[in-house]
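Please fill in the sequence for the structure shown.

STRUCTURE ENCODING:
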């Protein structure tokens, strides 16, 4: 989603800005722009990719202070005018903004009543004009930004650059901004990945912080006045730039990285001697675990599907009530938060605004919330303070694959840990751990020979819609398969617990309708077979994902076998054929599989 990168130093700013934007490309965006100060503020902005922007940039852009932006449209269409940076009327200041201004209509009206002409449809542009009014009335730059933001309701990661002042002013509230200090130069970015080539010494602005950055360093204070407690952090883990290697796309590369990623995730976390899971980052003792009345798991998209697997595993192993919540709904349903309950915010990026807002709600109500996160040092990881890093490594494709596997694995380990504080025996724990340790090899084995994926692709690629069915732990896997195919190949997909199919979705079935059924060898299998027969009777074409050597294979028109494993662990394997079907269907239909239309990698607006 939207990304910000800014620089003030001694080097030429423009190439650094362009490189900063490039490093944030994986987040997804639809337009880009830069503003560079060299006596005047020069702005270049354009719909399209960073490469498209590069094509319209003059060969040399002088100036060693600048701000830049990748925009993912929220207010106003995808146009050059709506791309950031935005200027005030006299071009004496430029702004870039991430986030959403909720009271924009009122603010626009006020500006228009003063005769100010807004040239874009964005909410962000109002900030440029409001700050400009403050400057015209004699306020210092920091005061003009402060006074402006006090009138704004919403979220911001904001950078302001001035024609007359050698500084950049930054402010954050509900949208991350990170300041970096180099030697005689300072940086600002919304994503640590853009900063790490320049410096490891950074400050994550807290909500309500405002900062002046100059060449020699930065000064952070609070919007309401007074000093900020935000300190310097040394970035611990930098993934570097994930390159494609021999793979044509990140999505397929990341699908194939799952065995290794899973190995990393479970390493050191399975305690065979005690038949227990070990998740040190939770810092939770057995007494607290025993006292918990329930567990709530919160996430969006793929993370939500992982939560649904996690909730079933927790109830199964620990016999503790568990729920999976859609993060975007959580806060607005005014949830009852039990202070003894355990809450988990699950997110690959650690930046998802909906998940962040749920965490804030839980904290406000005195609840305990832990992160299950991939990106180290991300906003959610820092806000939760305690949690589990899933160690998938960089996930660049917008469609999440290896993060799902590791979210599920982390939640399964937690289910084991919680179960062991209750009635779940050490012997049973050991049995699961034995099986768990074999899973990376099984994933590898499957990926070496994934079965008739291309036949499945032929069956789905021109379908009006595809139905995904599964029961028990396979029901969220069906949802994940449907989400992936929809995202990457733009095919309408529905997912249902198989038993629910006859209560409505069956009406969609006609001769040749593709139905993907996830039916590993578990206690639900026979029930799922009954649903297959119901689909078949209506002419559906069954793409069956099943356990190797299972006689159920004959129930599928196209049957894809995955290695056998403990039923509890099947989601780690059965999801992979669905990812491969999505990837190859996307390719067959000529879609941009790594950057599907309209989607963003980290969704930083609610
Ligand atoms: O970074 P997060 O895990 O919080 O992201 C949540 C969803 O936006 C994300 O899973 C989305 O659904 C993916 N594009 C799925 O492939």
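FILLED IN BY: designer on duty
SEQUENCE:
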């Amino acid at each position: 989603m939207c990304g910000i990168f800014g620089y003030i130093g001694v080097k030429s700013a423009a190439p650094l800005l362009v490189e900063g934007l490039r490093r944030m490309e994986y987040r997804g965006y639809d337009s880009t722009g830069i503003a560079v100060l060299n006596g005047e503020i020069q702005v270049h902005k354009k719909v399209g990719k960073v490469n498209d922007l590069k094509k319209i940039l003059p060969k040399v852009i002088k100036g060693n202070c600048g701000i830049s932006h990748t925009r993912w449209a929220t207010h106003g269409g995808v146009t050059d005018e709506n791309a950031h940076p935005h200027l005030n009327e006299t071009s004496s200041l430029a702004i870039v903004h991430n986030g959403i201004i909720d009271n924009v209509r009122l603010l626009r009206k006020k500006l228009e009543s003063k005769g100010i002409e807004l040239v874009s449809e964005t909410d962000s542009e109002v900030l440029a004009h409001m700050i400009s009014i403050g400057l015209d009335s004699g306020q210092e730059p920091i005061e003009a930004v402060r006074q402006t933001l006090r009138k704004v309701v919403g979220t911001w990661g904001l950078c302001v650059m001035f024609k007359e002042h050698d500084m950049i002013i930054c402010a954050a509230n509900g949208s991350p901004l990170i300041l970096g200090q180099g030697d005689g130069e300072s940086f600002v970015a919304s994503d640590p990945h853009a900063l790490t080539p320049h410096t490891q010494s950074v400050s994550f602005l807290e909500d309500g912080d405002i900062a002046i950055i100059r060449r020699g360093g930065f000064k952070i204070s609070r919007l309401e006045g007074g000093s900020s407690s935000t300190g310097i952090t040394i970035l611990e883990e930098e993934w570097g730039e994930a390159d494609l290697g021999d793979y044509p796309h990140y999505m397929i590369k990341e699908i194939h990285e799952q065995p290794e990623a899973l190995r990393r995730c479970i390493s050191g976390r399975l305690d065979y001697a005690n038949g227990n899971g070990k998740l040190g980052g939770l810092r939770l003792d057995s007494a607290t675990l025993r006292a918990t009345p329930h567990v709530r798991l919160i996430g969006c998209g793929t993370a939500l599907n992982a939560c649904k697997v996690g909730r079933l595993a927790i109830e199964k192993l620990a016999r503790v009530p568990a729920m999976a919540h859609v993060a975007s709904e959580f806060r607005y349903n005014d949830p009852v938060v039990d202070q003894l309950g355990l809450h988990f915010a699950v997110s690959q990026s650690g930046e998802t605004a909906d998940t962040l807002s749920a965490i804030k709600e839980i904290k406000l109500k005195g609840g305990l919330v832990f992160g299950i996160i991939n990106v180290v040092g991300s906003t959610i990881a820092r806000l939760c303070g305690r949690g589990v890093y899933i160690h998938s490594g960089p996930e660049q494709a917008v469609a999440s694959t290896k993060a799902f596997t590791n979210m599920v694995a982390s939640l399964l380990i937690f289910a084991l840990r919680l179960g062991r504080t209750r009635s779940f025996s050490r012997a049973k724990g050991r049995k699961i751990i034995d099986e768990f340790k074999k899973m990376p090899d099984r994933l590898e084995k499957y990926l070496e020979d994934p079965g008739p994926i291309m036949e499945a692709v032929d069956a789905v690629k021109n379908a009006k819609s595809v139905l995904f069915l599964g029961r028990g732990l396979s029901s969220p896997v069906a949802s994940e398969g449907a989400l992936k195919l929809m995202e990457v190949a733009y095919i309408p997909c529905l997912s249902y617990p198989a038993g629910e199919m006859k209560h409505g979705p069956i009406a969609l079935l006609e001769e040749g309708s593709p139905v993907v059924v996830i039916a590993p060898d578990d206690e639900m299998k026979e029930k799922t077979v009954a649903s297959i027969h119901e689909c078949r009777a209506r002419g559906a074409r069954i793409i069956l994902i099943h356990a190797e050597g299972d006689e159920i294979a004959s129930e599928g028109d196209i049957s894809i076998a995955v290695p056998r494993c403990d039923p509890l662990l099947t989601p780690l394997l059965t999801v992979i054929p669905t990812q491969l079907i999505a990837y190859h269907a996307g390719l067959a239909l000529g879609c941009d599989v790594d950057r599907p239309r309209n989607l963003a990698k980290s969704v930083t607006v609610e």
